[in-house]
């Protein structure tokens, strides 16, 4: 005998401010996070409900979502993302089911809804992403995806770097180029180059069997995405390579840091990276007018932070609006002596 559950599918939107709708959206985001944690471990990459709300307000993409309920309890979540500026035939689908509710037909019902929703948006090519942990070289989700007529098109490997205690080498820079790093915002004069790089890199990266056209990036889209990322509470660290001959940007990479779970990293004069937190607390000494900040390193030793680093921490505290306090790995540290 086989059991199939036919869930109730309830539309959810992060733009809806009705209290019940807000609760449903939070439950939908909770399903995505719980499923990701089960499949990927604590180092999962699920977005928070607050971040997903900001994403839904993007002018460059249309998002539709549903929450699957079984007897009124959340058991699954699905969504469709369709770009409004490029690749008008493509939609990205995603389906998540709580571990205890799997193999009961909930995923099938959500997949059928997602395909119909994508068709309703005029999309004819559907993409979906699967993720799994490092314990297996084979995708455990592939049989289910094939059953729904999807075929493997690209495999992307993720590499993790534990920066706490890591010795990072100085970056090697070729003659005629300069590396520049910006946090959160970049100079307006470089937005044109940044948009050009985004357009080129959208198709220059390996695409496997995927057929995608070049994305339509311009200065306004760069500004809009940066503003939305900041509204999500995320910090962005971007490094650019500049051709000194032409003065143009020729390459870049960016790292986003979730603001709801920040970790402050400090590079010592030994080139070692230390993350502030319960094991490496920050201590404010001196007096309120001339404070001195120390980072616990190891074996009772501390490193005193220089004036520039203190100024950066002070700006982080001011931006957070919580007084002269910063957070790192779940711990809070005062920037002035108590």
Number of strands: 15
In spatial order, strands of the major sheet run: 1-2-3-4-5
Distance between the termini: 67 Å
- The gyration radius over C-alpha positions equals 23 Å
Class computed from helices, strands and strand pairing = alpha+beta
Regions with little confidence, pLDDT below 50 for 5+ residues: none
Largest sheet: number of strands, sense, barrel closure:
5 strands, mixed
For the record, the CATH class of the largest domain is Alpha Beta
Q: What's the name of the CATH homologous superfamily of the largest domain?
A: Gcn5-related N-acetyltransferase (GNAT)
Tell me, rounded to a whole number, the average pLDDT: 88
Overall domain count: 3
What is the H/E order?
Answer: EHHEEEHEHEHHEEEEEEEHEE
Fraction of residues in H or I helices: 25-40%
The CATH topology label of the largest domain is Aminopeptidase
The geometry reads as: globular
Q: Percent of residues in beta strands?
A: 25-35%
Count of alpha and pi helical runs: 7
Descriptive terms for the model:
3 domains, 7 helices, Aminopeptidase, 338 residues, 27% helix, alpha+beta
Structure write-up:
- It is globular and about 65 Å long.
- The longest helix is centred in the N-terminal third of the chain and has 22 residues, at 19-40.
- Helix 5 packs across helix 6.
- The protein has three domains: 8-147, 3-Layer(aba) Sandwich (Aminopeptidase), CATH 3.40.630.30; 177-258, no CATH class; 265-334, duf1285 protein fold (Roll).
- Helices cover 27% and strands 28% of the residues.
- It is of the alpha+beta class and 338 residues long.
- A five-stranded mixed β-sheet has the order 1-2-3-4-5, with helices on both faces.
């Amino acid at each position: 005998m086989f059991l199939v559950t036919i869930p109730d599918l309830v539309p959810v939107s992060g733009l809806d401010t009705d209290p019940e709708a807000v609760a449903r959206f939070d439950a939908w985001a909770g399903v995505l996070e719980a499923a990701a944690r089960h499949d990927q471990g604590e180092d999962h990459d699920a977005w928070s409900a607050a971040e997903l709300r900001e994403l839904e307000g993007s002018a460059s993409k249309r998002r539709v979502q549903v929450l699957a309920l079984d007897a009124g309890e959340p058991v699954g979540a699905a969504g469709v993302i369709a770009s409004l500026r490029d690749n008008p035939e493509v939609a990205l689908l995603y389906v998540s089911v709580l571990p205890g509710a799997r193999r009961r037909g909930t995923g099938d019902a959500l997949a059928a809804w997602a395909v119909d929703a994508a068709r309703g948006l005029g999309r004819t090519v559907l993409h979906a992403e699967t993720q799994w942990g490092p314990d297996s070289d084979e995708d455990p989700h592939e049989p289910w995806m094939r059953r729904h007529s999807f075929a493997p098109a690209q495999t992307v490997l993720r590499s993790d770097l534990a920066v706490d205690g890591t010795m990072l080498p100085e970056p090697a820079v070729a003659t005629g180029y300069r590396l520049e790093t910006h946090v959160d915002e970049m100079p307006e004069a470089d937005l044109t180059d940044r948009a050009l790089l985004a357009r080129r890199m959208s198709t220059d990266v390996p695409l496997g069997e995927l057929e995608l056209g070049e994305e339509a990036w311009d200065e306004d889209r760069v500004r809009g995405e940066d503003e939305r990322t900041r509204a999500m509470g995320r910090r962005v660290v971007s490094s650019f390579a500049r051709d000194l001959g032409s003065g143009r940007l020729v390459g870049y990479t960016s790292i986003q840091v979730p603001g709801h779970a920040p970790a402050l990293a400090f590079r010592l004069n030994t080139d070692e990276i230390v993350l502030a937190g319960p094991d490496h607390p920050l201590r404010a000494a001196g007096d309120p007018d001339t404070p001195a900040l120390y980072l616990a390193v190891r074996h009772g030793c501390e490193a005193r932070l220089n004036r520039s680093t203190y100024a950066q921490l002070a700006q982080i505290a001011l931006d957070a609006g919580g007084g002269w306090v910063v957070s790192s790995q779940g711990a809070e540290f005062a920037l002035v002596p108590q």
